[in-house]
Design brief:
Oligomer: single chain
Strand order of the largest sheet: 8-9-10-7-11-12-13-14
CATH architecture of the largest domain: 2-Layer Sandwich
Low-confidence stretches: none
CATH class of the largest domain: Alpha Beta
Number of domains: 2
Shape: globular
Mean pLDDT: 96
CATH superfamily of the largest domain: Dihydrodipicolinate Reductase, domain 2
Order of helices and strands: EHEHEHEHEHEHEHEEEEEEEHH
Radius of gyration: 20 Å
Structural class: alpha/beta
Number of helices: 9
């Protein structure tokens, strides 16, 4: 069994704790918060045996094998490194790191400590993603020419942590990482050129982002993320011989239907999904730690994600729009 400790009491834990309890070889043993009162209250609410005041206290517990990090984005790198130093395996909520150099530090530390570190992109573990890859890599669309994808939802709180620049907030880091990583997965290579445009919130982070990526071989991807529109996710893959429309690419339901257009005809393809999301992610992590299976999301993947997102943000900050007079 994999004995888990949870760093933080973020909302995403509501999905991960039930998934860990449904996974075949995991048990939730402990949770840590910044204060004893918050840790005790959260442990009681979720029926978690142990509570810790302070994250390092949890990491120092020899009775834990792995930690899930659901802290704000700015805390992912330091606490991932601290967990690795304590000999713990780490599942870190996305985004793992703001720069490729940070991922390199994590990779070096994890290799030395002989622990598994993985970035949490749940969709990568789902049957819907596997079916999309099967169709694309099997040539159902011909050569992939363009990928169009996005993720939006409306933020209603002015003081939401995702709008805080000191916490590495912004829609690109929080939502745009999904279409960016999916595009790289479909292109099966790192982008060689990126361009970004952003709408900047008064606090200094992007609350709306549009990006373009160009991959070796000519495939292009257009990605969109934002906190200024209702919830929506989309993905379309356009090839030389067909197109594939993917509903709910990042949070698939128990059953989804793909639309494959080819030769002037449309084919609907049903795909059975997971009754409870995140269970497959946890079980994949179990396999990596307990069986030595390769990680589904490798640190090489995470390095490219960090490099691409930071390059997109740099492009958006440097861009100057030109308008005809």
């Amino acid at each position: 069994m994999l004995r888990w400790g949870i760093l933080g009491t973020a909302r995403i834990n509501r999905r991960l704790i039930p998934a860990m309890r449904l996974a075949r070889r995991s048990e939730v043993v402990a949770v840590a918060s910044r204060t004893r009162a918050r840790a005790d209250a959260y442990a009681a609410e979720w029926e978690i045996p142990r509570a810790f005041a302070g994250y390092q206290s949890l990491l120092d517990d020899p009775g834990l094998d792995a930690v899930y990090i659901s802290l704000p984005n700015s805390e992912h790198v330091p606490w991932t490194l601290a967990a690795v130093a304590a000999g713990k395996h780490v599942l870190c909520e996305k985004p793992m790191a703001p720069t490729a150099a940070d991922v390199d530090r994590i990779h070096a530390a994890a290799t030395k400590a002989r622990v598994v570190v993985e970035e949490g992109f749940m969709y990568r573990h789902e049957p819907l993603t596997a079916k999309v890859l099967e169709l694309v890599q099997g040539g159902a669309l011909g050569a992939v020419r363009a990928i169009v994808s996005g993720f939006t939802f409306a933020l209603s709180r002015d003081h939401d942590p995702r709008l805080d620049p000191t916490l590495d907030g912004g829609s690109l880091w929080d939502l745009g990482c999904y279409p960016v990583t999916y595009a790289r997965l479909l292109a099966d290579r790192d982008p060689k050129m990126v361009f970004g445009l952003a709408h900047w919130h008064a606090g200094g982070v992007d609350d709306e982002f549009m990006g373009m990526l160009r991959f070796p071989g000519g495939t292009t991807a257009t990605i969109y993320s934002g906190f200024r529109a209702p919830f929506r996710t989309w993905l379309e893959v356009i090839g030389s011989e067909g197109a594939l429309t993917v509903p709910n690419p990042f949070k698939p339901g128990e059953r989804e239907t793909l639309e494959l257009e080819r030769g002037g005809r449309s084919e609907m393809i049903d795909v059975a999904g997971s009754p409870v999301l995140f269970v497959r992610e946890v079980e994949g992590f179990e396999a990596s730690v307990l069986d030595g299976a390769p990680s589904v999301v490798t640190l090489a993947d995470s390095r490219c994600t960090a490099a691409t997102l930071s390059a997109l943000l740099s492009s958006a900050r440097d861009a100057t729009a030109m308008y005809p007079e």
